[in-house]
Structures
1.
Amino acid sequence: MRQAKCPTCGNVAEVGDQDVVTVCPYCKTCHTVDGAIVKEHYLVSAYYQSNEAIESLVLWVKKQIGAEEDLPLHLEIVSVSLDYYPFWHAELKAETKFSGIGQDATYSGPAGGGAYRSISFTSKPDAGFIDRGLSLTYPASPTLPSALLDYQFPTRSRKYFSEAYAKEYGGKIHNGVLDQKTVERQAKEEAARILGEFIAREIYEVSSREDKIELLSIFYLHAPIWYIQYKYRNKSFEAYVDASTGRVITATYPVSIEYRTIHGALSAANALAGFGLSVVLGRFSVLAMVGTLIGFMTMSGVLAARALAFGKAREEAE
Ligand SMILES: [Zn+2]
């Protein structure tokens, strides 16, 4: 553990060895451990309280295939906690002027109905201009659970941190290990790479390329996540719920005995049918017998996996 002194109120707080950006626990100033204030610091509001997050989880589990139907009756909440994870968000304007060699398709021998007998490609010099607005987000903390790494946090409803945080439900504010300079460099590199991909769609050989990449804005933001641990008939499960939208991001849930029993029975029946059929086919062709056996065993395996499955799912992105 190291110590960081707040440039605003002068209080000293402990930070992790790798942390470079922290939030003062006394006055909520966001600053680097070297004492530079991060002015553009926002918060995505937690509009959903813990009970609403739990409600959202229960409704979500009910929609999952094979989930226990009596979950709401036997659900036992073990812990509910609110975490604010840090992100850097960069807006860029990326332009490029390029020239090189592209391809032209020539269609010949019309065959009616818009079809042609042959298509030939010829190379030709080509040039163009690409102009894109990019919005890139970088998780800033190693404490972000891996299940949330590729989740697109909503950043539109952000507010300045210091004022907004006072009205929140508490929660742990995580520190960041990425500084602004590093993120700016990464964002510009990524923008150049994205431009390169667009160019590759136009031409296959680049002879000249002139990029103009401009960072329009960059800000640091904390987004709220509810972490729920719960039990069902003495087994443990967990869930992550976006506290700003109430959406279940990812969760584990109990799979019903009925679902397991049905799939277990189907698996056994399938295996038996496979054996029966392959014995019959074996009289005619060994190859057909083996093929059939493999097919049925694979299906049986799939069904058996369902019977043994540990429920885990994540909501698809909208
Ligand atoms: Zn302070």
2.
Amino acid sequence: MATASTKMPEPHAKSEAREASTPDPWEAAYLRFETPEEEIDKFIGRLKRLGARQWPRDAEIVELFCGRGNGLIALQRLGFTRLEGVDLSPRLIAQYQGSNCIVADCRELPFADRSKDVLIVQGGLHHLPNLPGDLDQTFSEMQRVLRKGGRVMFVEPWLTPFLMFVHFVSEIPLVRRLSNKMDALATMTEHEIRTYTQWLGQPELIKKVARAHFVPVHESFAWGKWNFVGTPR
Ligand SMILES: C[S@@+](CC[C@H](N)C(=O)[O-])C[C@H]1O[C@@H](n2cnc3c(N)ncnc32)[C@H](O)[C@@H]1O
């Protein structure tokens, strides 16, 4: 069973860490958007595309904003052994069967300086409430925690024509009635609309903050995603 750390960063996490017992409509939609196996396959594909097969199998890897932990399962299936996850939601972490997930705020990472080799974020940064402040703080924390020569990998939504099309379609009432997946997407978007539109609306700012902390090794924009792999400055 997953363990929840007692660390609860001040001051924001107290108000934002969600209670394990309270239902959350965004989380309910996220859980029905993809099955765990669909999600794991997607993560494995991404990891391979972004060069994870070249990383040492004993690298210390943390998946930030890890949700229900399927990114960790993908890493495990690729042979990685030293894995940890961090997420603000005790309910999502409770769905993960491993013992290496911590409930914490990624703006204040519960790890020692220079203690990790790879930090991964897949679809978490766009949940940060304040840009650029929270992004800068999260990236500073990642820089602090990474060893020299370490890596970051981000995959986040990006307003490409494909993403615009997907959102247009997912908001059509008939499509929502016919497709559980599209309805889940539209529901998630409704519940995260403030941070999501803030994120999608500031691409240059986001790239600038990322480059201030990390040297890009790979960067691409495709299928509604920003894919970034970098090393700490
Ligand atoms: C879109 S989900 C992505 C989950 C997982 N990476 C995936 O792709 O399935 C975003 C996650 O970020 C978490 N989250 C939001 N703000 C956070 C914060 N400040 N620190 C840690 N986790 C946070 C949410 O609880 C949620 O699980």
3.
Amino acid sequence: MAIAYFPNMYPDELIYSVLSRFYVHCGYPTYTYAVQDLLGNAKCKVEKEFVKNIKPEIVDLLTRNMSFSELLEQHTMLPMYGRFIDSERRERAYQALLNLDGDFSKLFGIPNLKKGEQRFFRYCPLCVQEDREVYGETYWHRLHQIRGIEICHCHKCYLRNSTVVLDSKVNVWLVTAEEVIADDDALQGEVVFCANSSEVELVNYIVSVFQSPMDMRKSVPIGKYLHYRLMGTSYLGARGEHIYFNRLWADLKEHFNGISGMDDFIGNHIHTIIKGDRFVFWEICMMAMFLKISVDELVTAKENIKMPQQIFDERVYRLWKQGLGINEIARKLGVASSMVRMAIDITERKPKATAQKIFKNRKQDRVTLDKEILPLVKQAISELHGTGEQKPCRISMGAVSKKINVSRYLLQDLELCKQVIEKAIECDDKYHARKVMWAVNVLQKSEKAIKLWRLRYLCKFEKEDMLACLLYLEQMATPDIVDIVKSIL
Ligand SMILES: [Zn+2]
């Protein structure tokens, strides 16, 4: 059927809402006909928080007065689910949105609901009354569906659940807000205002972030940015690398005490957000607000941020270059002199400078260099493992880099080398077993009796460590060595 009428969208209206109004206003004889007209296939599910599977002519109608990206930003929940996710995921998810197809829950990494929990479309009783006065009907607002908030930012009253399920896994028909929300008289009894001023403040903050313009091409690593913004607080160690998560969590919990958004927020979440493994919109907003980051700063955060530890190292280095002594710098900055030494050391071995130098000299690309350095890396690992004569050393990126005299930063960039080194890194017990083998060999060569104290002296570890490494020793050493060690333990 050719579409003769299509409603205009109201401010902040979900696409699901306008499609529902279309269905109801057109007076379709059956629901199937409407879905057929909108989606082209009566079996398709109607997407509630985004837009999916709709026919091109419907997209044209929806974008009569705006571009498709504006439609996504102003009439879907993209600003909640897409704002802070990592760049790779964001690109895939955005592409799926543009194609009007995909599993958006998975693509955006939408947090699952708790077992038995169900989400419903929500409304504010006072907004409903205002909509009816202005437009003659009410509709589903996006701002009322933001997870983690419970009150209407305009009226400061608690939102109410409707009977329409919002959970993405549950299939619902096109239902308008007007049909399911009671008449104005009944609504009066539902208004409960929020008395908690910090909750109101938080909701205003979250709504402002939600409504701020989005740049889908830009992706700020939000965890990194929050870490950066801890600078100058008591939650960061002197050099800026170590974060006092327990202290941060305790203060944040205290700050938002009694606020509904805290119900599912647990201490581990702030850890995973800062490490860049969690992107929950309302939790990030809470952390940002707690850290006194303005909405503007949060939504315009730059992609390239200097991390606190780098800023600290550079500051130390500047003072060092000005001629201050290590102890003097330490006193001035209130840190241990070993930390000052480390900062100087790291800055002097600037990763980029070393890598660039090598590239410049050799005029090779990374892949060729990777292949060329690989045999050296393998040789270094075998030497670090120790032979009968040579004492084993612990394998690490740093140890290999030192041995072959190639910057560890460069090594980390060489895929093959990196893989081989990472594979060679051993657990403590395996490394200890190697040391025991070497120590037994040393004692045998010098024809000294093998005693526990001699082994302990050579290996520099305790009897418990020897017992713990027996399993590996059995795998790596000859049976006679295993027997000798077992007999003295
Ligand atoms: Zn309201």
4.
Amino acid sequence: MILVVAEQKDGKLNRASWEAVAAAQQLASGSMPIKIAVVGQGVSAVATELAQAAVAEVLTVEHASLGVYTPDAFAQALQQVIAQVSPAYVLFPHTYQTRDYSPTLAARIDRALVTDVTAIRTGTGAPAFARPMFQGKLIADVVPQGPAPYLVTIQIGAYRADAAQKGAAPAPIAVAGVNVDESKIRQKPEAPFQEAKQAVDLSQAERIVSVGRGIKTQENIALAEQLAKAFGAELAASRPICDNGWLPMERQIGSSGQTVAPKLYVAVGISGAIQHLVGMKGSRTIVAINKDADAPIFEVADYGLQGDLFELAPAIIAELAKA
Ligand SMILES: Cc1cc2nc3c(=O)[nH]c(=O)nc-3n(C[C@H](O)[C@H](O)[C@H](O)COP(=O)(O)OP(=O)(O)OC[C@H]3O[C@@H](n4cnc5c(N)ncnc54)[C@H](O)[C@@H]3O)c2cc1C
């Protein structure tokens, strides 16, 4: 049995959960049942949404101490769920939250954890979990050792959310009862940083226009903003743009920034260094605008526009205004 731990915040499902469901369905190959657990408080609407998936069951894991996220409470609760359902694998989307608590959980139950998995190789023998190493220069195929369950986090964008198979009828929803010992919660969460700043979560964006050093000056960022607006997209950037302080760090895409998988990623004046590509190559459709025909970004692009961005971007904005 495979357990997928879906992620929600304030009753809103993180769509990377669907990507983890798609990964679980590939791992199961139709021969292992899948259950989805959703942890928090007031998660019934999210459970109903997840019950559309072709899975055996959705489990709600609710407790007053799980309403506000803490790694200790989540690890306590999930340890009990794992003991109740005895899965062979536990899959999580590789989010900031699971990055935080999954090592704690793995240590508590003394089981193997494979993080940031980009592909699952099934066939003869035990499944291997592919994960990038050394900033994406190598891919290691990891076969976890020791007793099950094996804990696996799935990189955002490695699987497509819309590839998750839906069931003919909604899956049953059941309650997984857990106790959380509040005296064992060592963290005292403060008000969420993201909400206070109203920061953007690019991993949830459906369209992204990303700008690189080809934009040349801080003043020209306005052109990228106009292009993003014309597409109805979020604005992101390569590292030099954020290092220069032309856009905030939270908008950086890549190995030291965010990993994203939008439906549309428009790379404007970005060369396509490996550290950038690892953050966006899972995007469904990639459009690259670059004056250099040999720029590596064209190797991952579905549509390449070779030319001067200062001519092409205004032309695209004008065309989109007509649409
Ligand atoms: C440990 C480490 C971590 C890193 N992490 C990240 C990361 O998270 N994210 C990231 O992005 N980078 C990261 N980098 C940096 C990365 O190696 C590259 O240096 C960076 O991605 C390059 O950014 P760029 O493509 O904007 O700039 P450049 O490589 O300078 O490319 C600019 C591109 O713009 C094109 N261009 C110029 N003028 C025009 C024009 N008028 N019209 C059209 N095209 C034009 C050029 O042909 C060129 O291809 C990291 C590096 C290291 C060592």
